[in-house]
What we know:
By secondary structure, this protein is α+β, with helices and mostly antiparallel strands. It has three helices and four strands; from the N terminus they run βββααβα.
Amino acid sequence: xxxxxxxxxxxxxxxxxxxxxxxxxxxxxxxxxxxxxxxxxxxxxxxxxxxxxxxxxxxxxxxxxxxxxxxxxxxxxxxxxxxxxxxxxxxxxxxxx
Length: 97
């Protein structure tokens, strides 16, 4: 399946791990504080894909929210945690831009 330009794997090479082809992993980017970022307090049962749909209208951009916050397993964000929501212009940015 071809990757879209919005995929977190777009533009990454293929590596071989134990003889099996796999997509290379993107390094975790440095956290950047954009002045137009929003802060969202997690409620019980909320997930990052729900937040991406709420703020961006696209649930597939959940990983942009994950990358903008401290490293944590995406399904393990407790209620009350304040999450940084990067602006849409950053969430939809590609390496080509």
